[in-house]
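Team,

Forwarding the record for the chain on the shared tracking sheet. I've put the sequence and predicted structure together so nobody has to dig through attachments.
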Amino acid sequence: MPANPFRFGSPIDQALLVDREAEREKILAILLEARNLALVAPRGIGKSSLLAAVARDGAQRQMNTAYVDLLPALNPRRFAELYASALTLSPSRTMQDTQEALRRLIPNFSPRVTLSGEGRPALQLDLWDRERDIQALMDRIFEVPAEMQKRSGHPLSIIFDDFEDLIAVAEPGLLRELATAARKQIHVSYVFVLRKDSTIQRLFEEPHSPFYRLAESMRLEPVPKNLMVEGLEQLFVECGVSIEPVLLHELLRLADTIPHYVQMLAHSLFEQSREDGTATANHLKAALSHVLEGQAYAFKFQWDQLSAHQKTLALAIAQGFTEKLHSQRMVVRLGLGSPSTVAKNLRVLSEREILNRDGADIRFVDPFFGLWLQRRMS
């Protein structure tokens, strides 16, 4: 039988991107001109997948790309390891090429080359390296992109994914040094991948920030529902499962039309319906149950971290109470504490990336968390 065509948890295949041609062309044009970009969109919207496609497009134009996943960057040492790994290591390199790249990059250090969980080579510094040694390594790493670009003669783009995770743990000095290096390296483009519009404003639009006007901003908008339905239907049919558009619209509603969660639920639906050859409402119901059960431990952990008033607020939003939450009537009716408590908890839950607020619109960042809460109340 054909393999499940739906993927989640990693960048999807270029063929699965829907209606992103304009964004791909715009981003590639920016990077080929060595301009910096701040790309913002909520989790799961497809930023990493889009940038992976741009990197493939760029390779055909002789553009080199270094991708740095900052989610594990818990401290300056780990950031140095991740950045150095992205600049020097490649699965296609021989060990001799790797050693030569390391000698050029960090001649005074001898890090160990290990394999990540995905089988990619990565650098690991010795635990006894002193803080001043790490700083010297950081100074050296910040110089390297310009040297790499000059040596190759081709465009070079550095992609910092989940840049907010570095901001949360990095000392101000590290961020200033990174911003300074990016300003000086006029032939290297930097992409700062962000999840919150507020970070764009704070980082790139406030004069006191070292990143002030360092990058142009671009917001990645959701894919239109009708195009997503067409793309999903085509994938189901190509793999031997017929499905009605009305069922796909319901799938999109449950997943809030967020590509990551759409792919997750579609993956489960395909598994539920592949033997029958036709996807039904019962298959979708079973698929959703499978997804929620698989995430239950993580949802329970997230739930346990909330205060009593935050739990009450989350339950209210899960039930659809998203309008006039600050009003005295709603506060009393739902037991939310006080209008000021509601305002504070909305801000806290947004900062924790449990809720996403766009003006008056309030949604769960993970729509399945909201559905899980609904089931707990039923």
